[in-house]
Amino acid sequence: MDKSENFSTTRHSFTTWAKNQLFDNDHRVATKLLDSAVDVHLINLYRDLDIHNKLTKAATAVQLSEALGFSDSAHIALQPMLKRLANHHSFIDADGPGLDCQFKPNQQPDDLSHTLPGITDRMGKLGNDYLATLEFLNFGATHFVRSMRDDHEFMDRVLTGQEKEFEETWHRATNTDPLQDIHGIMGAKAVELLFDGGSILEVGGGTGNGLRNNLDALLNAGRIAEVEKYIFTDVSMQFILNTKRELAARYPKDTCKWQLLNINKDWTEQRVPKGEVSMIYGVNAAHIAMHTVDFMKECIETLKPGGIVVFSERIRRPLEEMAPREIVLNQSSYHRTAAIRHPEYRPQHAYLAREHWLRACELAGFSEYDSWPHESSLSDYFPEQYARVIVARK
User: Fold this and answer.
1) What is the residue-wise DSSP string for 190-259?
2) How many CB atoms lie within 10 A of CB 125?
3) CB 75 within 8 A of CB 65
4) Residues 279, 293: Cα–Cα separation, whole Å
5) Other C-beta atoms within 10 Å of 53: how many?
6) Alpha carbon of 295 to those of 266, 288, 302, 365: distances in Å?
7) 20 to 30 Å CA-CA from 108: which of 76, 234, 305, 306?
8) CA-to-CA distance for 68 and 78, rounded, in angstroms?
């Protein structure tokens, strides 16, 4: 990108690309089908756990969690679940914001399990890969009580590659599912538009979605030689080894470097040099930082002058409502408790809203920052659009 060209100008071309080439009708239909499936699973859990009767005595998520015998932090997952049900259905009411919100049961919801085969059939007609999103949802519903009550660290082990039995489940959920892979594709487009040569440091690389999409995009554009070094990092050595084994041979020798990095600890102590990286990238990784602004400041210190961050992220909307994948992710005790909340930029755990990302960029001290694609340009075409790229320049 021409250095004189600002992010808002480039956002227009990115938005046009997203509307004309990325968010096709299948993707929009699949998004609605997933939302329907989420509500069915939540209603099933509501019924199976007898939440209707428990809410007559336990009016808040905190009280409900205690009544169910769940872990100490489970209320953080229950509150947005109940909020979603209250927003989408009439059998439960919600009164007030946050964890003090009072929930009132109006009636026992009907069992909608019989609708799941139809949803699955319609999703499958869009393509076999789309079924991965429903498989992940089913996995979360199946293991909900196990994670919340019986084995509090189970989902943390799954999400860090320590549960071999479910390793393929997580890999498919992060790489095969088109509704999730869209984040990597969007991020790669932003990298293609903004990368000006040098080194790329990927944080929270996980199962390789970012690496695969980024280097494939640059390879297809004939620009792979511009990557002096791609440093793939994660907190899980298992993910690093698996991704290295799967993807290293696809790219020119010595392009990729592999390194452990815990983004919540001092980066210098973990052998990340200051002021030498051209771009820092993350796909659905930046939101798991404990201290959002401190993490952003660490990025600034690591970047060269004029260096850029690209964070491809799910955006939280509505603010207090559970996002579809959180039926699984919020079973992780880390996802529930790690984030340090702040009223200006982090009022909720896990995913951030667009305005909170931009406020965090401002407070961290980035000279320029933006959010792609342009939201209003897609509001009629794809009102349920949930994926966004946060870009910021040192």
Assistant:
1) HHHHH--SEEEEESS-TTSHHHHHHHHHHHHTT-GGGEEEEEEEES-HHHHHHHHHHHGGGS-TT-EEEE
2) 11
3) yes
4) 18
5) 12
6) 10, 10, 11, 12
7) 76
8) 11
d(CA 33, CA 100): 31
Determine contact, residues 304/277, Cβ cutoff 8 Å: yes
Who contacts 196 (Cβ-Cβ below 8 Å, separation ≥6)? Answer: 1, 3, 278
pTM (2 d.p.): 0.94
Cα–Cα distance, 34 to 123 (Å, whole number): 8
H helix runs in the chain, sequence order: 7-17, 25-48, 51-54, 61-68, 75-88, 116-125, 131-142, 144-145, 154-159, 167-171, 178-194, 209-220, 237-247, 292-302, 326-329, 333-337, 354-364, 375-378
Q: Is the pLDDT of residue 4 over 50?
A: no
Architecture of domain 7-26+178-393: 3-Layer(aba) Sandwich (3.40)
Six token digits for residue 394? 């040192």
Note the Cα 257 to chain centre separation in Å: 24
Q: What residue has token string 């969007």?
A: 186
Q: What is the average pLDDT value for the chain, to the nearest integer?
A: 94
Lowest mean pLDDT among 39-53, 93-107, 202-216: 93-107
Section 332-360 average pLDDT: 92
